[in-house]
Structure prediction request, 665 residues.
Amino acid sequence: MKTKRWIIMMLTMVCVASSAQHKRSDLLLKFQERHVDIAPFFEDFPYSQFSLSEDGEKLFFFKTSEQNKLQWLDITKEKDFSKATDAVDLDFSKRNCWQPIYNEKDGCVYWIGDERNEEIINIYRCNLLAPGVEKLTDVPYIYAWDFSPDRTRIAYVARLAQNEKRLDELRMLDLRTGRDTLVCQDKPDFRYTWGDISWQPQGKGLMLLALKDADRTYANIIYVDTETKQTTVLTDPSKPGSYAGTSVMERWFSDDVCFFFSDQDGYKNLYRFDRRTMKTEQVTRFTSDIDDARFVTVGKKKYLFLLQSNPVETSLMLMDIATGKILYKHSSDLSLSIGAVQGDRVRLLANAASVVFRIIDARVGQKEMVLSEVLELSDELNARLIHSDVERLSIPTFDVDPNTGKTRTLHAYLYKPKHPLPEGKELLMIESFYGGDNRYNAEYQILNAAGITVLSPSPRGSTGFGRDFAAMNDKDLGGNEILDIIYCASYISEKRNIPSERIGVFGMSHGGYATMRLLTFPGEVNGHKGSFRFGFGIETAGFCDIIYQHTHSNIPDWTMLEAGDPQKEAARLIERSPLYHAANLTGPLLLLHGNHDNRVHVEGSRLMHRMLTHLKLPHRYVEFEGLGHGIKGIDNNRRFYRECFRFLDDVIRHDSSLYLWDAVW
Prediction:
């Protein structure tokens, strides 16, 4: 569903940028004895975060240049991205824009976002013919939102406070009159949360997500009657269900029947709800997650088009709604998402580890589907944007998988540069968290262009392998998932014959924390020992003190899920915090952070900087003025990579005595 896609985009650093006004020499960075040309990522294809209008004709995306611009292109008339038009006259390097959606009813683009990269999230809109901006709500934070079927109203969930003072409201905004009305408030036993909202076709009810007792491991679907204000829980509140595996379908099958997703049986499966009987039944029983589903019409009959994906492949299926039978299945090695559906045509957005971007049409028949390319980048452009050969790996870790009775293996992709650094100077960098996806990653490709090998593993806690695997790091932040990366590092060091001093770790947000944890790991956790002397680390927007993160973040419930209760388990959370193990630092650390970050406060990196300065241990701290949670804008991206390569140059120059440096950079 689109929520999952946007969470992934929000938690993954976007390092694709552009500038037609900069000379290419400004984008030619020096590293070792080579020049790393990052201009293709900044000039040739500076586009990211793609979405389609409902009819599949308008493509929306971000272009990062001197300013980050939300742009659009009518792909029925033009496929040259350089001919795109700005949707609004705003610079989104200085503010957030999440989930832009085009409303064909009024010709406006709507999004949730802020004005200073501080994540005070509200609803905004602009008309494509008049690129001004209008702010439609004024609340501290919006969790969920979506249009009514006739596109004249928006239902949204406003978070007005956090933690023990929490108060959430389900509200309804009339786009014609501007009237904003309260539907109802949540209750302590079922708290509203992030996700999509599904409208009953006549506006008689709304489906959305709620957490039982504010616990992210008990995500439920609820139905709110807009007339009586009565709330009905549609899932079994006694069963665990992950937040990532629970979602609603935007469109109803009929006035009374709709479908939703839950992973209460261990995998994200499809359920049916009938408001006449107020009963729910499970429709599918797959043992891998459904990613998305939409209704298609073949002839005069409705079917369900299902998308099932994991980090290796995507399956496209057609289901008979009446019988629940899968009529046929098509597999693809691309990562696919549904962009738009019109009748029997499903327009898909595609990419992969070695595929930058495509648009594909699936013409759905009763017995088969026919796939065709709608938009694809040229071979010449792909060659400038892809600098690696990708190999899939299965890496053994430290424990036994109870499902197989054998040593657990972890999925990973190895990005091998086409022109690696010379023997004796090889560098290998491991993504500390949020790795293993079969998606194009510009940051990996830029590192590959510099000759650096990248390992992108999926440690426990990663999505794509079912609820139980994704939940294996719940309440265990800094625990077994850290051992997973240590075992991956040992494996790849031996496989590639690269010593530990030339193997580093990097990551953003949770990955930034994991990077610092790995470089300062005390050697044992949960009764398991693990050791790997990482040569260096690069962390972006991470936190080094779990309790400080909880009390200074705009998403404290994340800490409760991942780490545990800071009040009840303070000693354990302190023990898992890199700040208090800084003296163990195995190699130089680069810290990068935006000073407007409200998700992970900038002190998350400043505290480690001050501690390492006190200990006189090798590190460098770089702060980005005005940035929130991530790196945005051409100047910031150029600075980011320049600092990374300068840091790595110093790592290589001091290769023989990393830990003995007595100078703070």
